[in-house]
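INFO worker-7 received task bundle
INFO bundle size: 2
INFO processing item 0
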Amino acid sequence: SLKHDLKDRVPPEKKSEYELQCYPIYDIILAAGLTSIDFWSLDIEGFEEDVLDTVPWHKVNIKSILVEVEHSDRDSILSKLQAQGYKIHKEFGKQDVFLVKD
């Protein structure tokens, strides 16, 4: 389940409801027939950690990741990625971190 609730961050005049079908990122990777990804940019306004938690890291080789950490728990995200063998290559202020797999 998602830990965040966006309803308080969206101005009332911009709120709309849409029904969307969602899939785990790994399902999309499998559907595309991929086992290796050179670069993944993950920027989903605070839900980055939720998506990262669904990745079966032993089944897919993601060589580099640019992840937005501005709306998330930066330390938790970086800790999870470092545990998977990623090292920080470059930080862009407090907003984005570019990591490369060893």
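INFO item 0 finished
INFO processing item 1
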Amino acid sequence: MLLCFSYASKFPRSADDNRTPGQSQQGFFETQSLSELVLRHEMAFTPIERRRVDNDSRVRLHTIKLQVHNHRERRTLKNMMALSHEPIRTTILKLGSYDLLLLESFTTDVLDAIRKLPIQLHQRSTFSKCEIFVDLVDRCIVQMDSYGAMKARTSTVHVMVQAFLAEMPECSLMINDHKMVESRRRRARGAVTMPPNQTTIRMANVQLHPTISQELYSKDLELKFRCLEGVRYEAMRFSVGGNLPPPVRISNLSIEVVADVVNTFVRLELQPHAGRVRHAIENIEWHFPVPGSWHNILVKKTPLGYRSVKSAGNLGMRHRERTTPNAMLEATVGIAKYEPENSAIVWRITKFPSEAGARANLSCHFQIQPGMTKTDFVNQSAMLRYQVIGSCVSGAQVWGLKINPMPRKPVKKWVRYETEFRYQIDLRPPQQMLASPED
């Protein structure tokens, strides 16, 4: 399959920007057609990063790299001289955009195209160390109103597989689907029992990788496949209804407009059940949209360039706080900052406190100047996203992983669970929002 596209430069222009449309910014934005690029299963995108452009500190560029991944076996000091599979990454394409959602949509479309590529299974090398990795990634999208009540929820589980096996044996993966349990009970006349303290899920909209036989899966309800050599790919995806509420809830969200002063407040709080599970909640991001006309009160010019308003760190170092005469941010955990490329106040928390009932608050204070738009937040939405490491909130679990025939060398099996949450919170006019925040 070939990937062909053209990328036109679109970026916010300022009054002192003398560049002509389409002029390159460090090679990332050029109006031109790229040559054809052959997609391969060994390709993968790096995580999205933010970087400055032309030493301009006012905005940041979201960048990614398309890389080809190969692996080799070697002993390293990092692994205490134990044999490991070290990735060799070759960058073949770099992309950048000011629009984060556009870049995420582009990477999703390319990865879906790679997933549908035909595969020729063949053994190219042997491995001295045999191991197989299975990742269950649960991507949950939640629609909420301004009061924190859920309006809709969709959960899609992606089963990612990566194997380093000799002789390419057949693998069989069993997931806790209720249809599989009922089918085995009928064939065994009720003699099949579930593992202790385990529950089943109801899978729907099952999509299999092209190398997996739909007929064999429908017969045994087990995922039977032959792994690609050292390639991490999506073997299966399915949707499932969520039973447990999300571990983080928005317990308070308020917007107050008094004369020319706008005060906003948001409180994030752990659900009671999340405090008992003790899974790590990491990479929390809260995006609160602000009008583009507020740019001048959220950015100030310093001897080192333009700097955005920023809250203080959570270690008591108040000298790191940056305020302007008309804007101030206060966060109890993490750091909040105005990001022009996102047109939003972005609040980042590396790891949420794990204590039961833990809270995190963010307060924003704005003094609107004459001529600026006094927004009413109609038809706008805030966004909250985070990761839960070590758990699939939808309840998906791996019950068994078999390899037949078993290689002569011992095989290590690794299973990892992860949930990615994304909330879309509808904002209402200020008079319809919650009351002032509680102490």
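INFO item 1 finished
INFO post-check item 1: The longest strand covers residues 56-75.
INFO post-check item 1: Confidence is low (pLDDT under 50) at residues 1-33, 430-439.
INFO worker-7 idle
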